[in-house]
Amino acid sequence: MSKSQQASLLDPPTAERLDKELRQKSQASHEWLWQMMQDTVPRLLQPVEGPEAIVFLDNPLEGKEMQVLTRLANGFVVYLPPLALLVDPGPDVITRALASGVELQRLNSIFISHPHLDHYAGAEAAIEEMCFLMLLRRGYLLLSEDAAHSTVISAFHRGAAPYGGPEQVIVLHPGEPVELLGARLTPVPAYHHGGGCGLIIEKNGLRLGYTSDTSYIVSYRASDGTLRTIEDNFAVMEDFAAIEEYRHDLKAAYSDVDVLVANVGGHASGARLEMSALALAHLLRGSQVQLCLATHFLRTCLYPHDLRADIARYVQAASGVPTLVAESRLRLELAPFRRGGNQGIGDQGISRLGNQGISNQGIRTHAEA
Predict the structure, then answer these.
(1) Distance between CA atoms of 283 and 5, rounded to whole angstroms?
(2) Is-contact 296 273, C-beta < 8 A?
């Protein structure tokens, strides 16, 4: 642009008028923000109350995941008041939480089971919400050993911010329980890329387990009697006859929980790095688990056929443990599953926002509640 063209656009009186108006409006905006914080923050800082529950976050592409390359894991929130724990927040956690009726500002803890994008991508955004744009020192960040040793969560979001951030970063070591907000959290080994850990959360006689991503089968007996190990995570065990060797520590740990959230890779595939449906049925058989929620399915469970409902039905039929697909925005009240309650899945404590997704028998929507 030439100097003459610039000169033609100069308008000092207009610039002076706009400068004055913008300063006044900016001051009003700051006053509004300060008043909003004063009005809102005290409510959000109140201890979480209400029923013990687990809420799976919204997945806007549920059933359409092939439209993107990034795996959109659900992530979920565990409410065991006063504990409000966000588990493995994947991409776009803010939008997904809002669609699920979850106020991220009311969280007081966040858990990352391992440093893979679909498990940590939303963590820093969630930390900023929990800590009110990093203005408050608040809450706890729980990291598996490999997540802690990685750089997926910045130093800023681990507490190096000058004003706010997590009150404490806790590195979890399998077998070493942590007491947090009235609950006991016990990390469980995970056998995945680089490790990671699952988690068992206990409070007031209720035990909730989360497997994270982990393999379970070490070797299996083929239909011809041959003993085989799994070399390819995507190979289908077409000749599978029976599990031979497996992760005994995982079966021992998760067999004693009341509700188990299990990340499932496939039915007879994905078994080298993930929990297959064949493996999950084996883990559940003979256990004390009252309900299993299957989630985190690989794309081979979605295309060209949606296998999720049939996988849940298979696991239930093969193990005798009630099994549901953890659909987008599913909410499950946990009190009926407390040991000694004997209500279990027959209780009307399961709901789901909206009507999308596959059908789970016994689930009612909020509109029907």
Answers:
(1) 76
(2) no
Task: Compute the CA torsion angle 44, 46, 49, 53 (nearest 10 deg).
Answer: 50
Strand 53-56 relative to strand 76-80: parallel, antiparallel, unpaired? antiparallel
**pLDDT above 50: residue 7:** yes
Compare 238 and 324 and report the one with higher pLDDT. 324
pLDDT reported for residue 76? 96
Q: In this model, does residue 347 exceed pLDDT 90?
A: no
Contacts of 103 (CB under 8 A, 6+ apart): 44, 97
Parallel, antiparallel, or unpaired for β 206-210 and 197-203?
A: antiparallel
Phi, psi of 261 (to 5 degrees): -95, 115
**C-alpha span between 185 and 18 (Å, rounded):** 56
Question: Which single residue is written with the structure tokens 């409902």?
Answer: 309
Q: How far is CA 192 from the centre of its chain?
A: 17
CA dist 81 and 90 (Å) reads: 23
pLDDT tens-digit readout, 64-75: 655 555 555 669
Q: What is the pLDDT of residue 97?
A: 94
Domain range summary for the chain, segments of one domain joined by +: 13-44, 52-365
Q: By C-alpha distance, which of 47, 49, 53, 14 is closest to 331? A: 53
Highest mean pLDDT among 170-174, 293-297, 324-328: 170-174
Q: Which of 269, 344, 277 is nearest to 308 (CA)?
A: 277
pLDDT digits (tens, 9 = 90+) for 178-234: 999 999 999 999 999 878 999 999 999 999 999 999 999 999 999 999 999 887 766
Nearest Cα residue to 118 out of 188, 57, 40, 50: 57
d(CA 116, CA 87): 13
Identity (one letter) of the amino acid at 171?
Answer: V
Q: Which CATH class is domain 52-365?
A: alpha beta
Residue appearing with tokens 């687990």: 54
- The single-letter code of the amino acid at 91 is P
Residue 81, phi-psi category: left (phi > 0), alpha (psi -120 to 50), beta (remainder)? beta
